[in-house]
Amino acid sequence: MSETLAISAQGLTKRYDGVTVVDHLNLQVKANEVFGLLGPNGAGKTTTILMMLGLTEPAEGSVSVLGFSPTREPLKVKRQVGYLPERVGFYENMTARENLRFIADLNGISYNEANQRTDEVLKMVGLTESEIMEALGPKRKIEKTVGKFSRGMKQRLGIAEVLIKRPRLVFLDEPTAGLDPKGINQLLDLIAALPKAGTTVVLSSHQLYQVQRVCHSIGILAKGKMVIQGAIDKLGREALAGGRFQIEVETENPGEKLIKVIRGLKGVLGVEAKGNVLSISTEADLRRQVSKAVVENNYPLIQMKIQEFSLDDIYMKYFREE
Ligand SMILES: Nc1ncnc2c1ncn2[C@@H]1O[C@H](COP(=O)(O)OP(=O)(O)O)[C@@H](O)[C@H]1O
Ligand SMILES: [Mg+2]
User: Residues 117, 260: one domain?
Assistant: First the structure.
């Protein structure tokens, strides 16, 4: 295998009282990517995460997390994996630093090491002393306890707690839920930076338009089944357009002759002109052929774009009928 997999699941299934809530799931997460586990409420995202953590046992199927089985080798998985649950709790009357020290202690990290890591993760999540001061305002200088934190700050502290044991893989279950747009963006920026620091991320969300920009790959769950999975840019085109592309070319005063030439190219399904822009639907990526036709007919090639379908479009396709 050329690419390392952080997670590989085959036929993973979970039933509660005879009801199948995760249904023969196959899933691959590559090392050092942000994988979006997406789907509406009740789709089975949290249950899937719990099975991967070894916190609930699958009825059928198998999963390998960093090369280990969470059911047979739970400690080996837990040692290297971080988990931010949907609802995080803190000691509200303690500071961020005190909360982190407590978690470090629980994880058996030595005093000196904990000091160093606390500084490191607080910096990563944007909760240094001066950042906290700025967020809470100068009047609250004395009380910087977590109880005073905004929801966004608390979520970032949650991620700091997850990162303090330097995990190779983290599961973040709906981390953006309940945040305002600024908080969402800060959190997503932080998540996007994790693979560069050597941490693979599984990010669950039912609000895909929010998380789209930081995911390399996604899997969409609906009623416990994986309906679509893969790299985001590829998925858009294949799933939505049935292998079709939309190419936009900007030139100057495109005439009938040019439109006719482009229409005649093999693989072109249609051409529409709006002012200086030609919208061309094709069966393949014909950017080279189209630009050649434009230039050979003595038109300037001002701009060329190939349209990527957004994740929202994919989501609509799979969830509209729900
Ligand atoms: N402990 C449980 N006992 C019974 N049913 C559960 C339990 N946990 C989850 N479920 C059910 O399993 C389904 C999937 O839930 P969940 O994994 O929490 O979905 P999601 O995280 O995508 O919202 C839901 O129908 C939910 O009601
Ligand atoms: Mg959930």
Answer: no
Note the pTM of the prediction, 2 decimals: 0.79
Do both 218 and 257 map to the same domain? no
For residue 91, pLDDT over 80 is answered with: yes
Which amino acid is present at 116? Q
Contact 281/249 with Cβ under 8 angstroms?
Answer: no
Residue nearest to atom 12 of ligand 1 (CA): 21
Note whether 253 and 228 are same-domain residues: no
Decide if 280 contacts 268 (C-beta within 8 A).
yes
Confidence of residue 2 (pLDDT cuts 50, 70, 90): very low
Instruction: State whether 114 and 189 are in the same domain.
Output: yes
Does residue 319 lie in a domain region?
no
Q: Is residue 205 part of a domain?
A: yes
Whether the CB-CB separation of 54 and 78 falls below 8 Å is answered with yes
Q: Is the CB of 40 under 6 A from ligand 1?
A: no
Judge if 72 and 181 occupy the same domain: yes
Any ligand 1 atom below 6 A from CB of 47: yes
Whole-angstrom Cα distance, residue 108 to residue 169? 19
DSSP 206: S
219 in ligand 1 pocket by Cβ < 6 Å? no
When divided into structural domains, the chain yields a total of 2
The owner of tokens 């004395």 is 142
Residue located nearest, by CA, to atom 1 of ligand 1: 16
**Most ligand 1 atoms within 8 A of CB, residue of 12, 15, 19, 21 to mutate:** 21
Structural domain containing residue 24: 5-237
Residues 212, 134, single domain; the answer is: yes
Provide the residue type at 230 as one letter.
G
Type of residue at 130:
S
